[in-house]
Design brief:
This protein is of the alpha/beta class. It is built from twelve helices and twelve strands. One of its GO terms (molecular function) is transcription cis-regulatory region binding.
Length: 337
């Protein structure tokens, strides 16, 4: 019977230490590229397969990270997930995925806390789930991506949603919009709340008279269908509205079609603007003006921060806030300088 090789056997064959073999397998950055290439060649030639269970017992690490997110029907989250999986893989780490409802329930929180993952990235978080987040954080290193919880001491990597909302308001004012609508859903998410706040506060302080039409939130799920219906309701309430800010792209795309179904020409009669810059926002058939979040940078930074947190559990938590960018497309008109 052929003997199963161990990492010590590979070390002898490669002429390196066993710890070097271990670091190569874990894709540790301290290993020189020549050494890494040589050890990987020996591993390939001899068909060596690391024993994951033995490695976990020795290092107390599984090499897996949990990513918790909600509403995968929103194209933003598959984009984030793709970026995170690639970032984690570049560090030799596996990804386990947990999709939750808006709120994190006790059963899911307990399962994550008791799993063998080395850390947790939350791409969704609401204030009503504070206790569940704390339950997990007592057992695992955690970081938050795209969301934050006010008053809580967690690492977070977010974009500046408050400033992004202000940028939308400034753009509308500069474009001489006078009857401005806000379409948003009922949400506890910091992203949505900050966008709304920045937008409304900037319009309130505008130097020229502006009417803000902000109908009560009629939905809790941000979908194309809800955006479509919300725009039609808004136009019945305020037919003279000349610009609408939607607090994410998916409802903006629905709102765009809802406006056209009511006979509105976009952008001649009505400007429509979203937020996030999901891939379909840039499709020629849509051409949505929006605010772009730096998702790739956010994903890279959140993975780096989690790995640092895993190695140094006593680090003081910090929030990294990145700037966003206005992307002007066909659903708004050009503004004269």
């Amino acid at each position: 019977m052929k003997k199963n090789l161990t990492s010590q056997d590979i070390a002898l064959l490669a002429g390196v230490s066993q710890s070097t073999v271990s670091r190569v397998i874990r894709n540790h950055p301290s290993i020189k590229s020549e050494t890494r290439k040589h050890v990987l060649q020996v591993i390939q030639e001899h068909g060596y397969t690391p024993n994951a269970a033995a490695r976990q017992m020795k290092t107390n690490r599984s090499g897996a990270i949990a990513v918790v997110l909600a509403n995968l029907t929103n194209p933003l989250y598959p984009c984030l997930l793709h970026l995170l999986v690639n970032q984690l893989a570049s560090h030799g780490l596996k990804t386990t995925i947990w999709e939750t409802s808006t709120e994190l329930d006790d059963a899911t929180a307990s399962a994550i806390a008791e799993s063998d993952v080395d850390g947790v990235i939350f791409a969704t978080a609401v204030a009503s789930s504070r206790r569940q987040h704390q339950m997990i954080a007592r057992r695992k290193p955690v970081v938050f991506l795209n969301r934050k919880l006010s008053g809580q001491s967690y690492d977070a990597v977010i974009s500046d949603n408050y400033k992004g909302g202000q940028v939308v308001a400034e753009y509308f004012v500069k474009g001489r919009r006078r009857h401005i609508g806000l379409l948003t859903g009922f949400s506890e998410a910091s992203t949505i709340l900050d966008r709304e706040k920045g937008f409304m506060e900037k319009l309130k302080n505008a130097t020229r008279p502006i009417k803000l039409i902000h109908p009560p939130s009629q939905f809790t799920v941000f979908t194309y269908e809800n955006g479509y219906q919300a725009m039609q309701s808004l136009l019945r309430l305020a037919p003279d509205v000349d610009a609408v800010f939607c607090t994410n792209d998916i409802i903006a795309i629905g709102a765009l079609d809802g406006a056209r179904a009511c006979g509105k020409r976009v952008p001649e009669d009505l400007w429509v603007m979203g937020y996030d810059d999901i891939p379909m926002a840039g499709w020629e058939a849509i051409g949505l003006t929006t605010i772009r979040q730096p998702l790739a940078s956010m994903a890279a930074l959140v993975v780096d921060r989690l790995l640092l947190r895993i190695e140094n559990p006593e680090l003081k938590p910090e929030t990294v806030r990145l700037p966003n960018k206005l992307v002007i497309r066909e659903t708004t008109s050009k503004i004269d300088p």
